[in-house]
Amino acid sequence: MIKxxxxxxxxxxxxxxxxxxxxxxxxxxxxxxxxxxxxxxxxSLADIQGWAKNTGHQYLGTIEEDNVxxxxxxxxxxxxxxxxxxxxxxxxxxxxxxxxxxxxxxxILDVREPAEYAFHRIPGAISIPLGELENRLNELRRxxxxxxxxxxxxxxxxxxxxxAEKDFSAVQNVExxxxxxxxxxxxx
Length: 188
Fold this sequence. Notes:
Layout: E1 6-10, H1 17-28, E2 34-39, H2 44-55, E3 58-65, E4 68-74, E5 90-92, H3 93-101, E6 107-110, H4 114-119, E7 126-127, H5 130-133, E8 146-149, H6 154-165, E9 171-175
Parallel strand pairs: 1-2, 5-9, 6-7, 6-8, 8-9
Antiparallel strand pairs: 2-4, 3-4
């Protein structure tokens, strides 16, 4: 049994709310304290791991019980904390829509969970959930002009940083993502 200093209930919340709430709760903890974040959003696993990696807080692990993901994080001491960085190459939904309409060859990588992708996606978008991206890089070509999209721009930001670290040169984060997408869509 893992003893946490604080319990944070994010059940029923979708991205990016579990991260937003975790960030606020983490600010209240002392260095070295443990927080248990309970979430039902399957995407929260990759989100929490990516956020911890980017901030320097320690991701300890996740236990799933009765469809609830219990994520455990340890607050870093001030000298361990990294300034959370944002990926610098960003394109708006409107810019992406214009590129598509003009016939420009763009590759759209959708890093949301499979259920989100199935119900509402940009035609031709490739689905690789954020949590699987590192193991599926061989499905992408480094020279492609890749536009990464999620629901709000949070997961896609983490995906862009990962792709850039792996030598993908033409990568752009689409903001605000599918939550604000007014262009063409399709579903299963």
